[in-house]
Amino acid sequence: MENKTLENIQKTAFQFFQDFTNFDEQSSGYGLTLDHTNNLESASIAATGFMLSSLIIGVKHQYISHEKALHQARKTLFTLYHHADHKYGFYAHFFDIQTGQRRGKCEYSTIDTALALCGIIAVDSFFEDQEISRLAHLILDRVDWGEFIFERDNKKLLRMSYNPNKDGAYALGKAGFIHQWDMFAEQLMMYVIIGGSTYHQQAYELYQGFERDKRQYGQYEYFISPGNTLFNYQFPLAWLDLKNYQDEQGICWFDNAKIATLAHQKCSLDYQKTFKTFSTYFFGFNASDTPLGYRVFSALPNKLNELKTDGTVAPFSMIGSLPFTPNESMLSIDKMLEIKNLWGTYGFYDAFNFESDQPWISNRYIAIDKGLEMLMVNAVLTQDVQNAFMKHMIIVKGLKTLHFMKK
Predict the structure, then answer these.
(1) Which domain holds residue 363?
(2) Amino acid 367: pLDDT
(3) What CA–CA distance (Å, rounded) separates 407 from 398?
(4) What is the dihedral of CA 326, 327, 332, 333, to 10 degrees?
(5) How many domains are contained in the chain?
(6) Would you state the pLDDT for residue 252?
(7) What DSSP assignment string belongs to 310-378?
(8) What are phi and psi of 25, to 5 degrees?
(9) How far is 77 from 75, CA to CA, in rounded Å?
(10) Long-range contact pairs involving 60-67 (C-beta distance under 8 Å, separation at least 24)
């Protein structure tokens, strides 16, 4: 029963990426994947990384022929090298899905580029194809991490993004580089990728440069992100399998993610009287669709010590935690299947909220949330994507560069 349910989540997610990716053979935006289903013109570079990863799952589980998946991977990488808008090798967060041109004045994003690079590394490893390998290495070698590295207080740090428009996304009236990764968040895999690149000599210092903020919630003690949003612990470990690794300080980020998930569940239960959507089964403070649009929520503890939620729960909170909390997540999945209208053509819709008299169910799918569900289900079923990713020479070298050791 459990495996059948999980396989259904995986298969419907795979189909999402087939149906909402531009596979028009004549289009310069070939291979770009929709950001979410309520805007059919905007593609996301991060979503495209998940789509590439889905091809591995599709081949391994016979959802798609090897030949068709190989063609889609080759041609998508061609788009990413030749057509997709970038600066210093970092991609625009959003594209016109037909052309690959940057949409509006969005930022050129390190984290969204990194999610795409994870997909590129995974397909390069899996297909062992000369053309994919050629394009993958052209894309990876073009990423100029050096432009984004700077020093502050004798620490090497990485800029978060770049926007040439002073009135653009996140620019706050000043064109150029935006903020920095000086905290623990969803960027862990970036250091591993840098460690396997030509900038490997700076990777270790960058990894050591961000703040480790250890806090306690009830019986749970763990390193938190400033906002303590659940995706910060989930996304870096969708491709990067660190359950048997620890760093020189003895930190195992997989174990940290497990503790964070259990702490999120406890925090949800502690506020169950205030927010009736929360329960043992429905938990997690995440970034998702809500009755008022897309919102980012915060569990306690966090930097501002303010709980931030409207009671909305996102299915990917629980599904995305499957490798960390398999028993709790499976119970959640079974309970979510009982919620009327939550399951659609491509699996669970993005979020739900029972705070008002009329239950609210999101009417859209958000690609990166669907992608996280797909990869974390795959991680507990057959680990096809993680196995491919972890054996790539860039990742093998990167883990050594950072002095990660087997536990």
Answers:
(1) 2-406
(2) 98
(3) 17
(4) 60
(5) 1
(6) 98
(7) -S-B-HHHHHTTTTT-HHHHHHHHHHHTTSTTTEETTEE-S-EE-SSSS-EE----BHHHHHHHHHHHH
(8) -60, -25
(9) 5
(10) 60/382, 60/384, 61/7, 61/10, 61/11, 61/14, 61/382, 61/384, 63/11, 63/14, 63/15, 64/14, 64/18
Positions of the chain with pLDDT under 50: none
State residue 2's pLDDT score. Answer: 74
Whole-number pLDDT of residue 108? 98
pTM of the prediction?
0.98
Neighbours of 157 (CB within 10 A): 19
Give the residue carrying structure tokens 């059948």.
Answer: 4
Q: Can you read off the two tokens belonging to residue 379?
A: 């991680």
Domain of 149, CATH number, reads 1.50.10.140
Buried b (16+ CB within 10 A) or exposed e, 285-323: bbbbbbbeeebebbbbbbeeeebbbebbbbbbbbbbbbb
Encoded tokens for 69:
């998946």
In the prediction, which pLDDT does 58 show?
98
Task: Enter the tokens of residue 358.
Answer: 């009329």
